[in-house]
Specification:
The protein is α+β, with helices and mostly antiparallel strands and about 230 residues long. Helices cover about 40% and strands about 30% of the residues. One of its GO terms (molecular function) is guanylate cyclase activity. This is guanylate cyclase.
Length: about 230
């Protein structure tokens, strides 16, 4: 009976660990208790989007299994690196990777700094990702960041998802889509949030036309003066 109990506890821990990979712990706890998860408003968070430059053409030249293997290698690399930062991986859609800081657990004014350090790390890391069927090829990342308010909540009953809503999400996505290869494109709101400790090398990009937003003053995040990315 004791052995069976230990086996049951071990299986329960494995199931909980898997659930916590898919949903925030606080959300998973409420769902396990069959409680309704209320949507929550966050005054300030920082959101990161990235995708692979030329992914459509790369995928067109590969078999489906090769595409899956390539993306798995990429996301295993990214997933292991973001554990070093106070961030939450929201989701992946194809070659798009979405991460936020400041939710579901609030972290004061640290969210922009955490995402900035993480983004520098991921842009450096993508060059090291091996593509088995393209040994001479190198992946390139295009990244965008924006800071602002958002709403987060669980949607769906079958395979429920923790989703973010609001203009901050849309603007962060626009920062990514108007970025360039191996560049981190940040909004003026993120720029202002990073100015507080003067730790970053940032270069003005100037005003650009952003779909649905009009002209926006944006910047390139180049590096951190006090921090070197992980090897």
């Amino acid at each position: 009976l004791k052995e069976k109990t230990e086996d049951l506890k071990r299986e329960r821990r494995l199931a909980e660990d898997l659930l916590h990979q898919m949903l925030p712990k606080s959300v998973a706890k409420q769902l396990r208790k069959c409680q309704k998860v209320e949507a929550e408003n966050y005054d300030q968070v920082t959101i990161f989007f990235s995708d692979i430059v030329g992914f459509t053409s790369i995928a067109a030249s590969c078999t489906p299994l090769q595409v899956v293997e390539m993306l798995n290698n990429l996301y295993v690399c990214f997933d292991s690196r973001i554990e070093s930062y106070d961030v939450y991986k929201v989701e992946t859609i194809g070659d798009a990777y979405m991460v936020a800081s400041g939710l579901p657990e609030r972290n004061g004014t640290k969210h922009a700094d955490e995402i900035a350090k993480m983004s520098l790390d991921l842009v450096a890391a993508v060059c090291q990702v091996v593509i088995p069927h393209m040994p001479m090829g190198k992946l390139q990342l295009r990244a965008g960041i924006h800071t602002g308010p958002c709403v987060a909540g669980v949607v769906g009953y079958k395979m429920p998802r923790y989703c973010l809503f609001g203009d901050t999400v849309n603007t962060a996505s626009r920062m990514e889509s108007t970025s360039l290869p191996q560049k981190i494109h940040i909004s003026s709101a993120t720029y202002d949030a990073l100015l507080t400790d003067d730790a970053y090398e940032i270069e003005p990009r100037g005003e650009i036309e952003v779909k649905g937003k009009g002209k926006m003053k944006t910047y390139w995040l180049l590096g951190n003066k006090n921090y070197s990315v992980q090897n």
